[in-house]
Amino acid sequence: MSAYFENRAIVVPGDILYEGRIRAGNNTYRMGGRVYATHVGLVEYGRGVVSVIALEAGYMPMVGDIVIGYVVDIDVGQWIVDINAPMNAILKVPDAMEVPFTPELVMTEFLDIGDTIVAKVVDLDRRRTPILSILGGELGKVDEGLIVEMTPSKVPRLIGKKGSMVSMILKETGCRLVIGENGRILIQCADREDEELIVSIIRKIEREAHTTGLTNRVHEYIMRMRGVKNE
Amino acid sequence: MSEEKWRRVDGRAWNELRPIKIESGVLPNADGSAYIEMGRNKIIVAVYGPREMHPKHLAKPDMAVLRCRYHMSPFSTHPRRSPGPSRRDTEIGMVMRYALEPAIFLERFPRASIDVYAEVLQADGGTRCASITAAAVALVDAGIPMRDLVAACAAGKIEGHIILDLNDHEDKYGEADVPVAYMPRLNKVTLLQMDGVLSPDELRRCIELAIEGCQHIYELQREALKRKYEEVVEEVKEGE
Amino acid sequence: MSRLSIIPKLKRRKILDAIASGRRMDGRGPEEYREISVRRGVVEKAEGSAEARIGDTWVVAGVKIEIGEPFEDTPDEGILVCSADFAPVASPTFEPGPPDEASIELARVVDRGIRSSDALGLKDLCLIPGRKVYVIYIDLCILNHAGNLLDAASLAAVAALMGAKKPIYEVRDGEVYPTGEVEPLKLRRLPIAVSMAKIGDVIVLDPTFDEEEVMDTRITVTVDEEGNVCAVQKSGPQGLSVEEIWKAIEIAVNKAPMLREKLEAAL
Fold first, then answer.
1. Which residue from A minimizes the CA distance to C6?
2. Which of A5, B85, C141, C225 has its CA 20 to 30 A from that of A158?
3. What is the complex's ipTM, to 2 decimals?
4. Which residues on A lie below 8 Å from C3 (Cβ)?
């Protein structure tokens, strides 16, 4: 019954994280009496559980996720949407507009190939195809802004503990952000300089995701960049 | 001639690997990538996926399909080789797939494809093994869930001596070549081929020697995967 | 990089707005290159080799030199063969398979710059007229496609030739025999390809992948050290005005010396 690494050490797939009775958490698997890592990342020994915070991982859709997608194709009564996942998602007409599908409906007038949407994953069908909805709140077609992509497994770092990182960024820049759990971030700013500042912040968070004291460093970074701008 | 004094054409001891350099994340476009130099071999591997399978009818309903393509640049060998794929390239692509498949949680991505592309820029014997070693690093870099890494190298026989990690000359003029890929934690051989003539005992010694080589290469793979992040940690510390 | 085969309209508009404002998405002005680096001798086994990077675009060129028979219409000239492989490592949009029209165009435009400027002096590469000549193969391998492959491929090709060594053959009794010695391949010219995209009303130099996705058309002008034009390729669906063509030539002639410096400084 022992841990093989220090807490938050960098591990790679196949590394033995623990031997003995413990729950195998995210990005780990159990075989025999041992728990192994499946991703490169930081090992976390919690109470009765061992997991890995992945530093590289693709996006796997889960019900309830907010995602940013691009319409890539149109079928009868549904749009095919790229959401940066291993499979395309489907947006059916009733989940997009509050009217039923009829053959007379010109779907492209509402959403066309190449359009960008903020959507919610509302279901995974029998074949695990993600089913989207754009009905409600902040969901729908995006007409303004810039989309930036980041490693999906690092999105929680952009949000921060209880949203601390993102609220600090919003407060300091005055921009609007929609964070897709699929690693796509919509940035809407009053001017281009702020937009570029946000992009560089996201790049910094992505690069330094595995280090400590990140929120403070990002805050200092914003102050420094602002200083440069005002000079 | 004692085993200690005998030296190989490039001066190595019988159980010595060539110098190896592995770097992860070298290609901005790929989902994951790695570059390996193993002696004078220079190979770049890109991973794309898991992504929608094209053409769709090749997709499997219960798991991802791993596709491996091995290709040698025309300038990678002497004399120049034709740019089109050869029968050898096709076979190596297949054995790469078999070598890597057991390490990947393919069942997590039904209907998707995971594409591994190895491009050999310079060949000097043992390119299939070096490609597999680099591909395993590239798969991890792509964030694909893995049971274990896969390390690969060959052992063989030349002038009656059992040797590790054959270079091009030893491959051509030696008596036998045994490429092996190995999952070090799970203790499984995932590639085994042989070319030449060996006694059963010699073959056993070659496989054991190759596994020892794989274990060493495995440590280099782990270092390569961690280096990218450790460098940033150092940089952040210095900044404070 | 996105795996999409189409460019989202939102992104398209961002790119167009940025170009119209005079400051591109990556902060460059219209007539600025990304960072360029050229390194020679990356593949020691080839007779010559080099890699060129322009931003994230990355191309490796290898030169192999063999002996072959000349073409019937040029019995006293060596042979130049230039080919390109858009390796699937380089982009999610590249598929394995035989060369498509884009990779053939790339190889042919690089070839034309070298051939038209007579950079190699093909007449000097003849051993026995009508029977034995040097065959110079230039193979281009694209490792990462982030736009403007042509300029990177052209830089890599010329850099690889600059450092190439050709085996010396002895001609005896109508046959050629290798001496085992080598000598540098002499280059008489350093042709430089300069590519521009027309996007809206603006000509932008060194387009990125995304800019190429939205461009109306592209023009490549290859220039030698005397400022002569030695190859031109207009490629893409829309037309160019005569004024735009003059402008493109002027930009190319002005920019080529900077690129040539990169070539000459390469180790």
1. A114
2. A5
3. 0.94
4. 82, 84
